[in-house]
Automatic annotation (TrEMBL):
PROSITE patterns: EF_HAND_2, SOLCAR
One Gene Ontology term, aspect cellular component: mitochondrial inner membrane
Pfam families (UniProt xref): EF-hand_7, Mito_carr
Name of the protein: Solute carrier family 25 member 25
The organism of origin for this protein: Collichthys lucidus
Mitochondrion found in the keyword field: yes
Annotated EF-hand domain residues: 70-105, 137-172, 173-208
Compartment list: Mitochondrion inner membrane
């Protein structure tokens, strides 16, 4: 912490050696003090649970914030320093000027987050009560972070623990970089950080530093490209305790629904090209759209979208619950998994979720391929399939679909983590927040690479799901279909429909991100 701010918090230490002397330096209150009733007498109070510096199992620090018994007076002094215009409220401009005087530099965005987090009456500033409440609440978050970093449980954080914690998040830094992080917080030159140093450094910072990486770099809840094979996102302990996790999932599901609906015509065109495009019957994008509109009008462009949207909620919920259970089964006691563990747990969770809702995948393909008047709706389609083909028809293409999870999820995760690491190491000097464009670029690139790797399996899956609707040709197995496509169409036959598939990636990612951010605000999701 900068010396001036350290002085504001810690000048009360003199009260330990000079009892009865008001460390605030005044006898009868301070001009502009939110409560002019403070006296020159030292008031002794026993620390209580939840105070700054008190921790169950540890001896209480002499000050609830920083070293003396007069916690409330110290807060009033700090409030007065930050309340630059003396109007009894701290706004962003007050924080900017006040913190600069104290030697603390924060971006305008960070200061806005502080005010927004504490502003309960939504008047654009923090009164004294809101200021105290914000600091108390923020200190609790910081303690959670400190404990998660303190791997040895010795009350101190060293460079190895910082490196390990970041490695658990998929971020690799050198020991030199870890020591640089330490030096910025280490006040006594021990090259370790105790709880007081950690708290003092971060108390007027809007986020908890390392967990920012999880919060800012969420991937699967934010981006929806129409394929639900991504490894689920990690949620912090705090998000699970406060119930923020389900709001993230609801926001992600809503964003996916809007995104899929907006790009449904391209998705239906992809399915038609995967099933009906051959060497002898080449279907291009303009011709495909024209054919769909001529056959069923503009509304036909959205065939199959209803079931595609409906399946988002159960699939997301099942995948999340399965992922959390698998984490426990594989014995990880860490808040966040390493990349290899995430891939294993995520792939298994994806397989469980896909198995649970796979009949809906078959229905989506059949509804996308249907002719006008063939089915009256989703239930009618399911009834026809069951009566004519039996229960087994609802699991056609299941094997190539399961096989496609590993290359898709693995490559998407590896590319995303690589891009994330690269950005964090080169550009994350003050904040882990990458900004909208970096997030969109990373999400689009990784999703595209994942889709490209598993596309042949996705095409074979779609052909198998649709075989009963094709009048010509026998019903083939997965290997038989692979051989048939390569023999009759060549290797490029495995990539039919790739163009409309890639055309929808950028709009899908962009739309899902914008809607996700809007729904987060609506649902009250806080980013610390």
């Amino acid at each position: 912490m900068p010396p001036l701010l350290d002085d504001v918090f810690c000048q009360c230490r003199s009260a330990e050696t000079h009892p009865g002397v008001d460390p605030g330096g005044g006898g009868g209150g301070h001009a502009g003090d939110p409560s002019s009733a403070s006296t020159s007498k030292s008031v002794t109070r026993q620390p209580v649970s939840g105070d700054w510096g008190s921790d169950p199992g540890q001896s209480a620090h002499p000050c609830d914030i920083c070293g003396g018994p007069e916690q409330e007076h110290r807060l009033k002094v700090l409030f007065q320093v930050l309340d630059v215009n003396g109007d009894g409220g701290i706004c962003v401009n007050d924080l900017t000027i006040g913190l600069k005087k104290l030697g603390v530099h924060r971006t305008e965005h960070e200061l806005m987050k502080i005010v927004k987090a504490g502003d309960k009456d939504l008047d654009g500033q923090l009164d004294f009560e809101e200021f105290v409440h914000y600091l108390r609440d923020h200190e609790k978050k910081l303690r959670l972070v400190f404990k998660s970093l303190d791997k040895k449980n010795d009350g101190r954080i060293d460079s190895q623990e910082i490196m390990q914690s970041l490695r658990d998040l998929g971020v690799n830094i050198s020991e030199e970089q870890a020591e640089k992080i330490l030096k910025s917080m280490d006040k006594n030159g021990t090259m370790t950080i105790d709880w007081n140093e950690w708290r003092d450094y971060h108390l007027l910072h809007p986020a908890g530093n390392i967990p920012e990486i999880i919060l800012y770099w969420k991937h699967s809840t934010i981006f929806d490209v129409g394929e639900s094979l991504l490894v689920p996102d990690e949620f912090t302990v705090e998000e699970k305790k406060t119930g923020m996790w389900w709001r993230h999932l609801v926001a992600g599901a809503g964003a996916g629904a809007v995104s899929r609906t907006c790009t449904a015509p391209l998705d239906r065109l992809k399915v038609l090209m995967q099933v009906h495009a051959f060497k002898s019957n080449s279907m291009h994008i303009a011709g495909g759209f024209s054919q769909m509109i001529q056959e069923g009008g503009m509304r036909s462009l959205w065939r199959g979208n209803g079931i595609n949207v409906i399946k988002i909620a159960p699939e997301s919920a099942i995948k999340f619950m399965a992922y959390e259970q698998i984490k426990r089964i594989i014995g990880s006691n860490q808040e966040t998994l390493g990349m290899a563990e995430r891939l294993v747990a995520g792939s298994l969770a994806g397989a469980i979720a896909q198995s649970s809702i796979y009949p809906m995948e078959v229905l989506k393909t059949r509804l996308a391929l249907r002719k006008t008047g063939q089915y009256s709706g989703i239930l009618d389609c399911a009834k026809h399939i069951f009566q004519k083909e039996g229960v087994a028809a609802f699991y056609k293409g299941y094997i190539p679909n399961m096989l496609g999870i590993i290359p898709y999820a693995g490559i998407d995760l590896a590319v995303y983590e690589t891009l994330k690491n690269s950005w964090l190491q080169r550009y994350a000097t003050d904040s882990a927040d990458p900004g909208v464009f970096v997030l969109l670029a990373c999400g689009t690139t990784s999703s595209t690479c994942g889709q490209l790797s598993s596309y042949p399996l996705a095409l074979v899956r779609t052909r198998m799901q649709a075989q009963a609707t094709l009048e010509e040709g026998p019903q083939m197995s997965m290997t038989g279909l692979f051989k048939h496509i390569i023999r009759t169409e060549g290797p490029m036959g495995l990539y039919r429909g790739l163009a409309p598939n890639f055309m929808k990636v950028i709009p899908s990612v962009s739309i899902s991100y914008v809607v996700y951010e809007y729904l987060k605000i609506t649902l009250g999701v806080q980013s610390k």
